[in-house]
Every structure is written in structure tokens, then in C-alpha cells.
Design brief:
27 helices, 762 residues, OB fold (Dihydrolipoamide Acetyltransferase, E2P), 4 domains, 45% helix, globular, alpha/beta
Length: 762
């Protein structure tokens, strides 16, 4: 069963790794031929599961792509009716929710018409409730996200969760239709959520309590998430197999305790069977409240298999139980194999089973068993954590040793009991919820302290797939359940995960990376041994920013512990919004800005400043020292001069600022690469400026279908007339340009193309 599950997973991952779906005729022929060939020999029959997995994944992926919004419907005002399909997330300025489409523009879901969309509603007259049927006027676009190495693949997340479009409601009013609401389970979850939040008014840990019961993590603050990430304890607040198993175990013990005290009950159903079925029912209810996420599915299937084995009085090997869970999850949703949670969930359970030799026992005492479990999860998941997050935290074992027993044995039972009692005994339920949040608040300073230690933020370079496979072999060697000699070999095999390879950039050369931050700007300049960040992209009303979402993940994926300098061209949000997160991640990072008065703690960026890194010269050309400027013309203009080419970054400099630069620099402005001023606005890129710079490569940092229509066609035409190669982050994603000695300036990566998967918008 385990080998069959792994074979099916391999087939699914082979398809998910493709840049586009293959033609169905050729793909069907390959799958049928492969299955027929595999069936001819007994030892290769397991490969049938490989082709079944690939074929099933193709079918599910195609059905989702068919329901992606038709391109011609983007940006139009459309009338949509349907049902609110999630608990809305509310922010000061807007609400966000999922919407199950009944009709869009007079058409039912089908080819080019999504079944599920994600909407935001600014200044809503009334926040819609789950299950309600509404009619809105909306503007939609195809699923789109940032495309950067190391960053979260939002487009993939939207695809795997069935969203065919995203958009917003036009105006402040929608029409609430009178039909009976749908999604009774969702409405029950929303009612319970509301009751819990009312029972914990103004409690900083109310969001954590709700996450432990409902699986809704939207109310956990960004600072709380940071502490959980830095201490490796984020799994504590995500309803996982651990929580489901804990609930089932508690119910099992309670039923067994009371059942065996009634001779009448025991005569009709054995104690073990009654306890097993009761535990399974409790697990199903808990998983339903959590929305049946992948970890809860896996736990439910495993518990169901164990209950069936108990009923049939048969012993099942743990590999068969885990394999059965893997097969069932993949059959239900093969695209879930693309989720990080899928790998961490199955990986943690497999690691625990492997360390304990396939059976959990307490021959060395409960404390030693707990230590071995932490060892199994901490070491077993190490290759996956480095591969997915490009970081490792050395405080995780200590933080989990304290937090896991406390949360599992005290906090989770309290919040579950409190939530259950709210409807029948509100006073007792509120008391238990408050006791749980009080325990969280008492232990929080310890987690904060651990999360602030330097060993909690160790960035690792993005490993190759070969390095991950080698490290996995090393982990298996280290975790062998029986004493084995030469365990140091396992440590050696882990080293490729952490050894940072040299940048490969020669002296006198540099790479310029323009990151995809939507409608904004963030670029990174790397020399042989130094890193400079120029602008940080925008911040958002929900509390996040592109420093956290894009810049920091990119730096971590390259193994950069901290940038040597950050320049914020000026104080506009689309350039300075991500600085807050960068400062939190790199407290000692120096910052220069052309509008330092609007950037607390920044030093002035002024003409005449210059320095040299690894044979590359950096010059600040503007703003001038003796001329007061305001607005976009305060932008800090940076020229980078290598041994064989230069790059010019000018922020949002206006035409007046361009003329000032022309007067001061003249032909010296000529640069091989130009990050086009003000995103390609008509207020910049004067003819004289374009002629003086004469770039070979012009980069437009713009967002997809941005409201200002940048870059403007006239500006694009002006740069095209110079013969320059034109690129923009909306269609190319992150762009990396190499300017090395002895070579022509060259574009070496366009991430929306080079990192494309079958769901990536082109």
C-alpha cells in the first residue's frame, strides 16, 4: 500500500512539474502504453499507480483550467450572482471572501466562466454572511500573483483551491437575494467563530483560540505569526493530524472509562469498539470544523483504517495505514500534492514511525518518548523545511519541547471544551476559553525571547533537488531505529543543504534583479560579496507588505543573511512600503533615502555620495545637496558602474528631475540598463533623457492591469524606437540581468517564463 501511494504521488508530481498541460491525445497514449507495459511484469505492476496518478491529475487540472475566467472578460463590469462560500475576512477598509458563482454575465459556470472566485469589497454597506446569496457588480481578472524565486506561489494556491478569477465589488451596495442560504456547515462554523470572539473581547490571543478550533488563521496577528515562524512552532496553531489524533484519543479514553462501568452497554457492544467509533466520530466533527484540510484528511483516514482494523480484529502495518491515507488523499484531490502542508503532514508522521520502528511504545518512559518524537520531526523534516522556506531555526527543538506538551495536553482541550460549551453553558465555556488564552499569554514571552535570538533566523541558500535527495538519505541514516555505526555519514550528507555556494559573480561585475512586487518597485544589486536593495515595494491595508512577501524570501533563497545597504528612493508607499518588514528582519541594516524626512531612521541620500564594492562603483546622482525638492523629484538616483556596463535606477523621477540630471551629467548618463522612471508614466521619460541614457535594456516595474495603465503606450514606443530590449515585471515576473566583465549585458532569467508551471498565467 505504501509503495502504491508513493508511485501515485510520483506520477502526480511529474505532471505538476510541467510548464503546461500536454495534449490529451498524446498524454492518453503515453499513459495507456505505460500501464499496459507495467502490467506485463509482476515487479513493475506498481508503476500502474504512477500513470493512474498522472492521468487523474491531468483530468483535475484541466477541469480547473477550463473554468478560468476568459481573457476578454477581464476589466469589464460584470453582474454576478451566487453564494458567499467562506467566512469573510474583515479589515479596516475592506472585506475579502470566496464566492460560489451561480451566474456571471448571464452565463452559468463553464468554459471561461469560473465556478469559484475571490472577491474584495471596499467600504461595504454590510459584510456578507457565509451561505448568503448575493448579486454584485464586479470587475474580475484571471488569477495572478507575484512571480519571484523563493516567493510564495499565489497563482498556484489559487489554482489548487479552485479559484477561476479574483476581483472586487463595484460600489458600496450589493443585492441580498431572498433565497434560503447554502453551506450549513460553513454557517455553523461562522456562528461558532462569532461566539468565540464575543466571549474573548479585546483578547490578543482570541485569534489563536479560533485557529485551534476552526482552522481559520486570518485573525492571528503578523507579529504572532513571526514568532511562530522563528521558533518553528507554527504547526501548533494549524489544525493538523496531531490535533485530530489528540481529540480522538481524549474521546477514546473518556468513552472507555464510562462504557466499561455499565454492564448493559458492554453486553451490547465491546468497550474497545465503542471507544474506537466514538473517537472516529469526534475526529470527523473536529475535521469538519477545520474545513477538512489535508492534514485532517490524512488523520481521519488513518483513524478510520485503525477503527476498521479494530472492528475486523486485524493488525495493520503502519506503512499500510500511511499508504492508505496517502492514496485516499491523492484520489480525493491530486492537486493537494502541490501544497507545502501535504509534505509536512505526511513527512512528520512518516518520520515518527521510522524512528520508532513502526510502533509507538513507552519502554523508555513518556519523557524519552516525547524527546524521540521531537527528534524525529525536527531532523526528519529538515530537508523539506530548507527546500520550502530556505531557512532553519535552531531554537525549534527547545521551543517545541515546551510548547507541544502545553498546547496539546492543556490549551487545545481547553479551547475545544470551551467552544463546545458556549452553546449550552456559556459561562463555563467562556471561562475555559479565557483560561486557555491566559496560558498562551503566560508562555508567550518565552517564545518571543527564543524567536528573537540570532539562531532563530538562519537563512540557507535555495538547495537543488539533488541536494535535498542526498540530505534525505542522510536523514534516514541518522534516524535508523536501531544502533548503527558511522552515523557521522548522515551528518556529512546533510551539509549540502547549508553550504552556501559563492555568488559566482566576478570582480567588476554585478547582477541586477528587478523583483515582481506588483505596482511598485524593488530591485536588488549583487556584486561578488555585497548586496544592495533599492526600494522595497508597497505595503497593504491588511498589514502585509512586499518586503515580507517578496524581498525577504528572495534574499533567503539566495542564502543572504542581510543586505549591506537599502536605498529607499522616496517615501511613496509603492517604493517604501516593504521597509518595515526588512527592518524587522535585519535590525542593523543601514538605510538611505532621498526623502529621509518621511522615512524614520533613514539617512539622507545626496548627490556626491559614492563607494566601491568588489570593483563596482556606486554613485548617487540626485537629489542635489543645495536644492530643496519635493515629491517624486526627491527620488534617490543610483548609477552602478561595472567593468563592462552600467545600470541606472531613478525611482519616480519626473521630467524636471531628468532635465536637472541632463544638465549635470550629460552623456555620462548613458547606461546599458535602465529601470524606467515612474513605471513608464507620461510625466517622465522625456525624449532628451531617453536619448542620453540610450539603454540596451529597459525595465518597466509595473503591476498587471494596474489602474493607471502603466506603462503608457507612448512611453513604450519611445523606448522601442531606440532599439532597446523592453521588459516589464507584469509579464516577465522577476527579471535578472547580468553585467559581467568581458560579456555583453544579458537577461539571464524571466521568472514568469523560466519558473512557469501549468497554472502560471502567461
Amino acid at each position: 500500500m505504501g509503495i502504491a501511494g508513493i508511485a501515485m504521488l510520483a506520477g502526480i508530481m511529474a505532471l505538476l512539474g510541467l510548464p503546461s498541460l500536454p495534449d490529451y491525445r498524446m498524454f492518453l497514449l503515453v499513459c495507456l502504453t505505460g500501464m499496459l507495459s507495467a502490467s506485463l511484469w509482476r515487479r513493475t505492476r506498481v508503476l500502474i499507480f504512477f500513470f493512474v496518478g498522472a492521468g487523474w491529475c491531468w483530468w483535475c487540472a484541466q477541469s480547473l483550467l477550463v473554468h478560468r475566467l476568459a481573457p476578454e472578460m477581464q476589466g469589464r463590469s460584470l453582474l454576478v450572482s451566487g453564494w458567499v462560500a467562506s467566512i469573510p475576512q474583515t479589515y479596516p477598509e475592506y472585506a475579502s471572501f470566496e464566492f460560489a458563482v451561480q451566474q456571471l454575465d448571464g452565463r452559468q459556470p463553464g468554459h471561461g466562466i469560473p465556478k469559484l472566485i475571490r472577491l474584495s469589497w471596499s467600504n461595504a454597506g454590510r459584510t456578507p454572511a457565509p451561505g448568503e446569496r448575493w448579486k454584485f457588480m464586479v470587475r474580475l481578472k484571471q488569477p495572478r500573483g507575484y512571480m519571484n524565486p523563493g516567493g510564495f506561489d499565489y497563482e498556484g494556491w489559487l489554482f489548487r483551491h479552485g479559484f477561476g478569477a479574483t476581483g472586487y465589488v463595484i460600489g458600496k451596495q450589493g443585492v441580498l437575494l431572498a433565497d434560503a442560504p447554502r453551506f450549513p456547515l460553513l454557517r455553523a462554523r461562522a456562528q461558532l467563530m462569532s461566539g468565540m470572539l464575543e466571549a474573548l473581547p479585546n483578547d490578543a490571543f482570541a485569534g489563536l483560540a479560533a485557529a485551534l478550533v476552526m482552522g481559520d488563521e486570518s485573525r492571528i496577528s503578523s507579529e504572532q505569526w513571526r514568532v511562530f515562524r522563528e521558533t518553528g512552532t507554527a504547526h501548533l496553531v494549524s489544525i493538523s493530524g496531531l490535533h485530530i489524533s489528540l481529540m480522538a484519543g481524549i474521546v477514546f479514553l473518556l468513552i472507555r472509562f464510562f462504557w466499561r462501568r455499565s454492564a448493559w452497554l458492554c453486553a451490547r457492544l465491546p468497550v474497545t469498539l465503542a471507544a474506537a467509533f466514538g473517537a472516529l466520530l469526534a475526529a470527523i466533527v473536529y475535521a469538519a470544523l477545520a474545513g477538512f484540510s489535508v492534514p485532517t484528511q490524512r488523520a481521519l483516514i488513518m483513524l478510520a483504517a485503525l477503527a476498521a482494523a479494530t472492528l475486523l480484529r486485524r493488525h495493520m502495518r503502519v506503512t499500510d495505514v500511511l499508504g492508505l491515507a496517502l492514496l485516499a488523499v491523492l484520489l480525493r484531490d491530486p492537486l493537494s500534492a502541490g501544497e507545502i502542508g501535504f509534505w509536512l503532514s505526511f513527512g512528520s508522521v512518516a518520520a515518527i514511525f521510522y524512528v520508532f520502528g513502526g510502533r509507538l511504545h513507552a519502554d523508555r518512559g513518556k519523557f524519552m518518548q516525547l524527546l524521540r518524537t521531537q527528534w524525529a520531526v525536527g531532523v526528519g523534516l529538515l530537508p523539506l523545511l530548507v527546500f520550502f522556506f530556505h531557512r532553519v531555526t535552531l531554537v525549534a527543538p527547545l521551543a517545541n519541547l515546551v510548547a507541544v506538551p502545553l498546547y496539546s495536553l492543556v490549551v487545545v482541550p481547553l479551547v475545544l471544551a470551551g467552544a463546545a460549551l458556549l452553546g449550552v453553558w456559556p459561562w463555563a465555556g467562556t471561562l475555559m476559553l479565557k483560561a486557555a488564552t491566559q496560558i498562551m499569554s503566560l508562555t508567550w514571552p518565552l517564545l518571543e525571547h527564543l524567536g528573537n535570538l540570532w539562531v532563530a533566523h538562519l537563512a540557507t541558500p535555495e538547495p537543488s533537488l539533488i541536494a535535498v535527495v542526498v540530505a534525505a538519505i542522510g536523514v534516514l541514516w541518522l534516524m535508523l531505529p536501531k544502533p548503527m555505526p558511522a552515523r557521522w555519514i548522515g551528518v556529512v550528507l546533510l551539509l549540502p543543504l547549508f553550504l552556501r555556494s559563492p555568488s559566482g559573480i566576478p570582480a567588476g561585475g554585478f547582477n541586477l534583479i528587478t523583483l515582481d512586487v506588483g505596482q511598485g518597485l524593488s530591485a536588488v544589486v549583487r556584486t561578488a560579496r555585497h548586496t544592495l536593495v533599492y526600494d522595497t515595494g508597497p505595503a497593504f491595508s491588511g498589514g502585509s507588505d512586499t518586503g515580507q512577501l517578496v524581498v525577504i524570501p528572495w534574499l533567503q533563497s539566495r542564502g543572504i543573511q542581510a543586505p549591506d545597504l537599502t536605498i529607499v528612493s522616496h517615501a511613496d508607499n509603492d517604493h517604501a512600503g516593504g521597509l518595515r518588514s526588512l527592518r524587522a528582519a535585519f535590525p542593523g541594516m543601514p538605510v538611505l533615502s532621498g526623502e529621509a524626512a518621511g522615512i524614520p531612521g533613514a539617512e539622507d541620500c545626496l548627490r556626491g555620495q559614492s563607494w566601491e564594492w568588489d570593483g563596482v562603483r556606486f554613485d548617487i546622482l540626485s537629489p542635489p545637496i543645495d536644492e530643496p525638492l519635493t515629491g517624486n523629484d526627491t527620488s534617490c538616483v543610483l548609477r552602478i558602474l561595472g567593468a563592462n556596463g552600467s545600470a541606472l535606477l531613478v525611482g519616480d523621477l519626473l521630467r524636471s528631475g531628468e532635465q536637472r540630471l541632463l544638465a549635470l551629467e550629460g552623456e555620462a548618463l548613458s547606461s546599458a540598463v535602465l529601470v524606467v522612471p515612474h513605471h513608464g508614466s507620461l510625466t517622465s521619460s522625456s525624449a532628451g533623457f531617453i536619448k542620453a541614457v540610450a539603454p540596451q535594456i529597459a525595465l518597466f516595474p509595473v503591476g498587471y492591469r494596474n489602474r493607471w495603465g502603466f506603462p503608457k503606450p507612448a512611453v513604450v514606443a519611445a523606448y522601442r524606437g531606440t532599439g532597446a530590449q523592453l521588459l516589464d515585471t507584469a509579464t516577465a515576473g522577476a527579471v535578472e540581468i547580468r553585467l559581467w566583465p568581458g560579456r555583453e549585458p544579458a537577461v539571464v532569467s524571466r521568472w514568469r517564463i523560466d519558473g512557469a508551471r501549468l497554472w502560471t498565467a502567461r
